[in-house]
Structure formats: C-alpha cells, structure tokens
Amino acid sequence: MAKLQVRGARKAYGATIALKRGDMVLESGEVHVLIGSNGSGKSTLCKIISGSVRPDAGEVIIDGRPVTVTGPQMARELGIGIFYQELSLAAHRTVAENISLARLPANAGVFVDHAAVGATAERYMAPFADVLGDGFAADTPVVKLRADQRQLVEIMKTLATEAPVLIFDEPTSALDSAQVERFFDVLRKLRGEGRSIIFISHRMDEIFAIGDRVTIMRDGETVTTMALSDADHDMVIRAMVGGQEALIATGNADDEGTRRTGKTILSVQNISGPGFSEISFSVAAGEIVGFGGLHGQGQSSVLRALFGASRRQAGTITLNGTPYTATAPRAAIRQGMAYISGDRGHDGVITDRPILENVTPVHFLRNRLTFAFPGRLRAAVLPALQALRTKYATLSHPISSLSGGNQQKIVIARWLTDPPQVLLLDDPTKGIDLATKTELFALIRELAEKGMAIILYSSEDSELLTNADRILVFSGGAIARELTGADRTRYNLYHAAYEAA
Q1: Could you tell me the CATH superfamily of domain 4-241?
Q2: Which of 414, 411, 382 is nearest to 395 (CA)?
Q3: CA distances from 2 to 24, 195, 293, 332, 411 (A)
Q4: Are 138 and 96 a contacting pair, CB within 8 Å?
C-alpha cells in the first residue's frame, strides 16, 4: 500500500490555473523526486499535500484513507512535514528555538523546557557538525547566520517534526557540495528507516544521486512517473519538454540578425554584485534580450543593479557609448533606464493613492517638474494608458479600485509616458491574465521595432521563447549559455538550465 497518493488535484486563482491535474504516488521508504520547469505546478502540489493551499478538486490519500488537509496543523497531525522554498524562520530566535519551533517542549504544559530544546537542537545538528561553518551554535540568533546556515536550520526544523512524510522544496539551493552530501546522508538514513520523502530540485546531478523515482510535471499537469535507475538526464528533460522542442519564437533568424547589427545601446562588461558575478552582454537598438534559467539564479539581481536599486561591486557599463554610473534609481531614470517589476505590490503601485499619482512620478522626474497641473498630466499619460487598453473609471479613483492586471498596466504606463532608451522587465507578467499578457507583449515588440533596447526576464519559458531575440541562460549567478537563432528551443533552454544547475 502506498504511503501517500494525490489524485486529480486542481487549483486556480481566478483566471490563473496553478495546477490543472496533479497526480502522485509516494511509497514508504523512497525518495520521490518532483521535477518540472518554472510554473509547472510542483510547489502548488506540495502545498496542497501540506495543507497550506486548499485544492479546488482532487483528493489526498494517506495509508489508503482519504483525508482532508485543512491546514498546516492538520498536516502535522497526519504526519506530514515540509521545507518551503521561502524560509520560515524566526530571525531573532536562536538556532535551537527555531529547530523546535513546530512543537516547543514545555514543563507542566506552560513553560518552555529549555533543556529539552537544547537537547533537540544538538541531536539534529550532530549529523551536520563538520559542515555548519563558523559562528553556528545552538544559542546563535538566526539573524546572524549566513544564507547556507539558515537553510540548514530550516532543514533541521523540518527533520525535527519526525513526520513519516517529509517534503523538501528546493532545500539545497544555498548549500555547498559538502553540505548537500551530508544532507543526502541523512535522507538515505531516513529512507532506510522507511520514511517517505518528496524532493524537489533543479539540479540534475542531485536528482540522480538521491532519487528512487521521479514524477515529471509540465504546464500544471503530471505527465509521467519513472524509475530513475531506468532513466538518464536527456530522457527526463525530454519528458519535461514533451512535444514542444521546436523553435516557437515569433521572429526568424534573419530578423534577429538584423536587430543585432543595429547600434549598441547598452554594453555590460564583467559586472559583479550580490547574487551574480562576471556578467557580460550587450543589447542593440530594437533588440529584445531574454534572461532565462531557473528561478533565482541572478536574473533579477542583475536587472536591479542596472537600475541602481542595488550596488554592483565590479565591472563597467556603457550606455550609448558613454560610461553609465547610476548608483540609485533616480539617476538611472534620468539617464534613460526604466524598470518594471512583476512584484507590483512591493516595487510598483503606490497604495491608497489616485491612479493619476501612480502613473506620473517618472514623468515628473524625467521632466524635472516642480508643480502639478492635473490637466497637463492627464494629457501626458493618456497615450500610454490607451496603448495598454487600461480600464479605469477616472484617474482620480484610487489604484486599489483596479484589477491586478490593470494595476500592472498603470505601472507600465508610468514608464512609457516618456519612452526610455533601455527597458528592464523583471518578470513583468507575474500574476496577470492571459489577455493582458498578450497585449503587453504586443506593445513590447512594437517598442523594439521603434528602436528601444529591451531586457526581459520571465519565469515562464514560453514568454522568452516567443518574444526574445536572444536568451542568456543564467545559473548560479553567471551566464551559462547563450541561445540564438534556431537554438532557441524549449529543449535547449531546459537542457542549459538544468545541466548547468
């Protein structure tokens, strides 16, 4: 009898379908790998199993019995522990307190048993003793730890649940090779004890090193499950790609070659900074350069550094042949840079303010305006709003009155009112509907045809393959491969990303 089964799980957020059909069978005493490209539904499936997301359809079966996982507490009671991609540590609590956070031992059911907390910490730290690094101790506040050390604490916290079913969603992303091998030793021991483990990773060598079977997801659906002993790297990647190996870009090789022979607008040489190193590339007038690869490999960090939102530590940048030294967004804007983030809540909208105030700040800055004349401002922003087919009642309404897609259009119109020389797009369509995406990319191609230089990072591979003239595949904060012309295929994109990882 399988330890855990998921049948026909489905989850949608409005018009966005995060999971069309998730199926999985997890046996006792196995490490079951879950793999798929960005947005394939892996994390959503795991969140359904762990109770942090309620499915719209489907069932979860544990030990042959259908269960309703109503929340994380219910999942723990059912014997499910999970490591999330986004760490859930209490930064100002100690390592020991974080490890026991899910179930703090108490004296008389009231006071925390600090001796028991310390003993638990020592127990789960012991297997990692020689790879913890300097400054790591049971009484160290988590806020003082490095990224790899914090990730180890999260792993220990998950192990401390003692759950029969453990889910690890990209647990090795910040670990070095020695730390990964020690973690795998722990997983092998748990597997030998009959525990059941779901393991998500984008590193192909890890998948084959630790996994027994692999379930492959594509476009929100489970497509196949196979024994890793009967598979190889190429077989797994082809299953991820399916029948979509051919070039699907809208342009052809001749168009791309013509654009690349145009005037170089932006030249980047050997820049390094937090999350990336030794990055070099150029963008010509009228060219769309794509940043591809797995999520979190330095793409967004490079874009933010170009915009002056984070400091670069080395390298040179030229804009139209002259040195570009913007160390803050204000200076970048005045030199002709624009940055559009998909995280409109954090980097885009000015909450609780009118639409007009949200769409005009860049126009104010670029034109060095001192006084606001609403009539003139409306006339200035209307062409960009109309080009994006933005729906709103009046510009005096609060931006919160708009749908998510129209809020993002307001953010985009902010930058296009006074067209920039270089447009930096940081996953700009995240969380917006298909119709809005289509309109946005039609506009992006139109801007490129008018000579704008554009850099596009997207977590959706199809957006890059459909719109980018070249794709720079990132891995570990560096450019692993450049895909041009007929090499711009889904297979090559996956192969470059996963093999490099």
Answers
A1: P-loop containing nucleotide triphosphate hydrolases (3.40.50.300)
A2: 382
A3: 10, 12, 34, 57, 49
A4: yes
Pairing status of strand 314-319 against strand 322-323: antiparallel
Does residue 452 sit in helix, strand or coil?
Answer: coil
DSSP classification of residue 331 = H
Instruction: Tell me yes or no: is domain 246-336+420-501 CATH 3.40.50.300.
Output: yes
Q: Which residues of 96-108 are buried (b: 16+ CB within 10 A; e: fewer)?
A: bbbbbbbeeeeee
Q: Which residues pair with 87 in a beta bridge?
A: none
User: What is the percent of the chain with per-residue pLDDT over 70, rounded to a whole number?
Assistant: 91
Cα angle 393-395-396, degrees, rounded to a multiple of 5: 95
Per DSSP, the chain holds a count of helices (H) and strands (E) of 19, 22
42: how many CB neighbours lie within 10 A of its CB?
Answer: 26
Region at 357 (left for phi over 0; alpha for psi -120 to 50; beta for the rest) = alpha
- Inter-residue contact 339 to 329 (CB < 8 Å): yes
Distances, alpha carbon 187 to alpha carbons 147, 184, 357, in Å: 21, 5, 53
List pLDDT tens digits, range 280-332: 999 999 999 999 988 778 999 999 999 988 888 889 999 999 999 888 888 88
Domain 4-241 and domain 246-336+420-501, same fold? Reply is yes
Please report, for the chain, the start and end positions of each structural domain, with discontinuous segments joined by +. Answer: 4-241, 246-336+420-501, 351-419
Cβ 500 vs Cβ 475: under 8 Å? yes
Handedness of CA 73, 75, 76, 78 (dihedral sign): positive
Distance in angstroms (rounded) separating the CA atoms of residues 316 and 444: 27
What's this model's pTM, rounded to 2 decimal places? 0.68
List pLDDT tens digits, range 405-455.
Answer: 677 788 888 877 778 899 999 888 776 665 677 778 888 898 899 899 999
Collapsing DSSP states into helix, strand and coil, what is residue 113? Answer: coil
Contact in structure between 422 and 379 (CB atoms under 8 Å): no
The neighbour count for residue 63, using CB atoms within 10 Å, is 14
CA distance 118 to 111: 15
Q: Report the relative pairing of strands 196-200 and 31-35 from DSSP bridges.
A: parallel
The sign one gets for the Cα dihedral 95, 99, 105, 111 is positive
